[in-house]
Amino acid sequence: LHSFRGCAVREFSFVAFKPGCKGLHITTEACWGRCHTWEKPVPEAPFIHRHHRVCTYSRTRHATARLPGCRPDVSPLYHYPVALLCHCAVCSTQDTECETF
Amino acid sequence: HDGLAPGCHLHPFNVTIRSDRRGTCKGTHQVHACVGYCESSAFPSRYSVLVASNFTHNITSASRCCTISKDPPPPPPPPPPPPLCPDMWGHLCPPQVKIEILTAKACRCDMCRKSRY
């Protein structure tokens, strides 16, 4: 993995939780990788051209888990995406929380 | 860039500078860009993110991108060129114009800039 370049499906574990239920440990498929990105100076404004792409879901299926210990007024169903394919692409704020650090 | 190891590296390239849109006068100058492969991932969003996004953001992307280590400020606009000067035969000659071009000195995997994805 130290030398991997590109974007691929990778196993991912998380605790599904919502108020009124107990947490459930879920292992699923998500995306991980290293995408080709660059910044280069140019003589005209804005003086820097950027090509920033991130490893994200390309094709998904939806899965549903049943959380334990839910209050009677809370649905135990928890929906989450499962990655079938991943690719390097612009982070779409339509369906994605885009975090960068 | 097939030989690049993961990470973010200085990469030389040539910039062509033109005196006008038609390219009456032009020259090339070597500067450095930052090019590379930085880590990113995408995974199911936490419930708090789902609620905050009205259940539209079911994926969270955490990413870093190859950036010029510190964005230098844009160069000041060039001063207005002096008027054309007559040469020894009385012909009007264009003055020499000095143009500043940025170049990367260091690179690092840092914040992806959404505005210019």
From TrEMBL, chain A:
It is found in: Secreted. Residues 7-99 form the Glycoprotein hormone subunit beta domain. One of its GO terms (cellular component) is extracellular space. Its main location: secreted. One of its GO terms (biological process) is G protein-coupled receptor signaling pathway. Belongs to the glycoprotein hormones subunit beta family. Heterodimer with GPHA2; this heterodimer interacts with thyroid-stimulating hormone receptor (TSHR), and hence stimulates cAMP production. This is Glycoprotein hormone beta-5. The chain holds residues 39 to 139 of 139 of the full protein.
